[in-house]
Amino acid sequence: MTAPSLGAVRRCHGALNALHSTVYFTPYLDKELAGYGIDDSMAAYLAGRAAALGPVGPGPVTATFYSFHHDLVARHVPRVWEHVSPDEVWAARLRAADATLRQALGDRTVAGPEVAEAARLALRAAEGCRRPGRPLYAAHADKPVPDEPHLALWYAATLLREHRGDGHIAALGEAGLDGLEALVSHSASGEGMPREIVMAKRGWTDADWSAAEERLRARGLMTAEGTLTPAGHRLRRDLEETTDRMDLAPYERLGAEATERLTELADGLVAEAADSGVFPPVLLGFFTGRNGGEETPR
Question: Model-level pTM greater than 0.70?
Fold first, then answer.
């Protein structure tokens, strides 16, 4: 069986990450958790992604999410567990994923052969993931595979996303980039999310952002105008290539031909989701172009 290229690994990740991320742009998890007295969307987001870790405090969440301001995390965690248990949040997240995929794809596609085939391929790829050094992946891997194919596909996409993300954090640490510097350099590269979205969701201030830019300039990675220098672009390119290599094992297990087929299936589903309007217009290119293949720091 032929191993896929690193480019093929990144393309497959980009499509699966976009499919996983649909759940962040619908109101269903917020509605599910509102019934438990949680009325803050950031609290719902943090609880949803952290639920697999159990009733942890803010430290493990900041560590595994990496690019969120610790004060933002500590504002909601562990207080959120006073309202709802992690197991209840996980169940609510699966219900939200079900509602999201039905909205984004329609019941016919959800029950169709393409989703079932993509689920089988993605779960096979996930068998190639490894727990050591991958805390957020490992926590999710302890959860049972959902029975319904569309939820099994979303769950497998989640496993592969968090497995790659854990590896990306290791690469960022090796490169000497903290969470905010990772966000700033990613945005400046032209491949990341717009600054205004990052600032609204991660808890950083304008002063924090400016200080991170100054640190990048001191390393020769950013210009006075806020763009990346050649060294900065080289660092971002090296980061992605390192992440690709660290993410190769699941797709090696799948093989080049099946990886290409999974990418084709996932791309088709993401296109349907985009047509349904599930992605915000400002992020449409990020998820439907190949920008989604660039790793967004958590």
Answer: yes
